[in-house]
Design goal:
alpha+beta
Length: 185
C-alpha cells in the first residue's frame, strides 16, 4: 500500500490497475439518480408481492384464496365513510335521532306549516311528545289551534309515527298582571 491519499483500495497504475471510466467493465459503478433508485425499489416491491402471492393493486386479496376477511377493531375508524352516513351512525349510537329530527323541524318550520303561518308562529319547545308553538297574536293562535290536528299529522310524517302527540298553542303574553287599587275585585 502506498501513502497516496487518492489510492484508496491499494490499486494504482503502478500496481497494474487500469483506470477505466465509470460504467465500463471493471470500473466503479456510476452513482444512481433518485428516479433509478425509485424504479429499483418498485421492482423489488413487485417481486416481493409476487412471492407472497399478491399482485400490486389488489390489497387484501390473495391469489387462489378468494377474499380475505379482516376483523376490524370496533373502536377504530377503518375506511372513510360518507359524511351523511357517519352523522346518522353517530346520532343513532348516541340516541340523538329524535332530538335531531325535532331540531330539523324547528329549522324548517316555514317548509312544514307554510310561509304565511310561519311569519306569525314559531316553535318554542318540544318535550314528552308535546310541541309548544307561540303565536304573535290571539288571531293566529286561534288559527293554529284549528289546524293543530293537521299539524300533528304533518309533524308525525316528518318525525315518525307517534313522536308528536299534541300541539300546545300559546298566544302573546301581556306580562304579569298588576294588583292594586285600580283592580276590580
Amino acid at each position: 500500500m502506498t501513502d497516496d491519499p487518492q489510492d484508496v483500495d491499494g490499486r494504482s497504475p503502478e500496481n497494474g490497475a487500469v483506470d477505466r471510466p465509470p460504467g465500463e467493465a471493471g470500473g466503479t459503478p456510476p452513482a444512481k439518480s433518485g428516479i433509478e433508485l425509485a424504479r429499483e425499489a418498485l421492482a423489488q416491491a413487485k417481486a416481493d408481492a409476487l412471492k407472497r402471492g399478491t399482485l400490486p393493486g389488489q390489497s387484501g386479496r390473495r391469489k387462489g384464496h378468494g377474499r380475505v376477511v379482516r376483523v376490524r377493531d370496533p373502536g377504530r375508524g377503518g375506511d372513510p365513510k360518507l359524511f351523511g352516513s357517519a352523522i346518522r351512525d353517530l346520532l343513532a349510537s348516541r340516541g340523538w335521532e329524535q332530538r335531531a329530527a325535532v331540531g330539523g323541524v324547528f329549522g324548517n318550520w316555514p317548509g312544514i306549516v307554510g310561509a304565511e303561518l310561519a311569519e306569525h308562529t314559531r316553535p318554542e319547545q318540544f318535550e314528552d311528545g308535546v310541541l309548544t308553538v307561540a303565536a304573535d297574536s290571539t288571531t293566529w293562535a286561534t288559527q293554529l289551534r284549528l289546524l293543530s290536528s293537521t299539524l300533528v299529522r304533518r309533524l308525525n310524517e316528518e318525525l315518525g309515527h307517534g313522536t308528536v302527540r299534541r300541539v300546545k298553542v300559546v298566544g302573546p303574553s301581556s306580562g304579569p298582571r298588576r294588583t292594586g287599587a285600580w283592580r276590580v275585585r
